[in-house]
Amino acid sequence: MICCMGMKAQSITPEDIKDIETPKLYVSDFVSKAPLIDGFIDSEIWNRAQWSETFIDIEGKKKPKYKTNFKMLWDNENVYILAKLQDEHIWGTLKQRDTIIFNNNCFEIFLDPDGNTHNYMELEINALNTVWDLFISKPYRNNPEVKFEWDIQGIKTEVSHEGTLNNSNDIDKGWVIEMALPWKSLNVDNDESPVGKGRFWRMNFMRVHWNFLLDNGKYKRVRDYSNKLKPSSNWVWSSQGAVNIHQPEKWGYVYFNKSDETVDINELPIDAPLIQWMYIQYRQKLRVSNNVNEYSRETVGFFHGAKVVFKRRNIDKKWFWYCESPLTKKQYLISNDGKLSIIKK
After folding, report:
1. With the C-alpha atoms ordered 337, 205, 63, 53, is the resulting torsion angle positive or negative?
2. Domain spans of the chain?
3. Closest Cα to residue 132, out of 165, 166, 155?
4. pLDDT tens digits for 204-221?
5. What gap in Å lies between CA 11 and CA 1, rounded to an integer?
6. What CATH number was assigned to the domain covering residues 25-256?
7. Would you say the pTM of this structure is higher than 0.90?
8. In angstroms, how far is the first alpha carbon of the chain from the final one?
9. Under DSSP, is residue 295 helix (H, G, I), strand (E, B) or coil?
10. Which of these, 196, 193, 200, 168, lies nearest to 269 by C-alpha position?
11. Measured on CA atoms in the order 90, 94, 96, 100, is the torsion positive or negative?
């Protein structure tokens, strides 16, 4: 059963959706020989991968103090990630697995294999090679279940330092993280097969960096006059536009290249701007959810010259936000709690 309802579309100038800001793209190549996970960049295998763009501030307003970049590769067993973090003071205090690692300077990875914004994974690692991994059923705006006890089984991580750890008497150059994530451990409550070959995943990477002061030679995070911790800096690969990494629809696209010889894709899916536009409308609807008229009102845009409408739709007694692509004829649905699904004609 399908039916539609909604107020008259807003009387504003429709947006030209094709020009909307879209997330970053990284193409991860296949390798027939796995890199040695030792925390160093000197493996020739990593020469096969390109460095990502340098990280930007999470809001896109400030230039980060230090550079951060990553590389990715994959084979039939694992996804491989290498990250290089420039830093003049390498420090860390947390040594227990699954403690809240972002209380130290750390590197964070977010993975949404089927790109529907639900059932995604978060991984954090500090300069001591201490890991925190967790599984999140949906974004925090939608009241998720968070599985803190969840682990990426079989994960391998190593960290190396170009400098000295927890030594405030010198100036360091930075640290390197290298890891292998087994495909089979990343296939949790997702709709696709675990191996990403020839597919896009939605991913983002974030670096948490704290300003520090020295207390008897030991690093401590800076507090204000009321003894409250001052906020950390958050630097990301693909811009979030707000201090909120838990908006998976804004994460970048990682494409797992099918071949170890040539890149078979170099652009985002053609409907990527349309999906971004739909989630802009969805987030606005959340903000006016107590106003029935505004919440139900349709929004009109233009996508490659064709009119598109963001509107309510009932499918099998469940309400969704709906829009059809004039290019691919795919029908995109966003549920009330933000999950994306696709109906292909």
Report:
1. negative
2. 2-19+270-343, 25-256
3. 155
4. 999 999 999 999 999 999
5. 30
6. 2.60.40.1190
7. yes
8. 17
9. helix
10. 200
11. negative
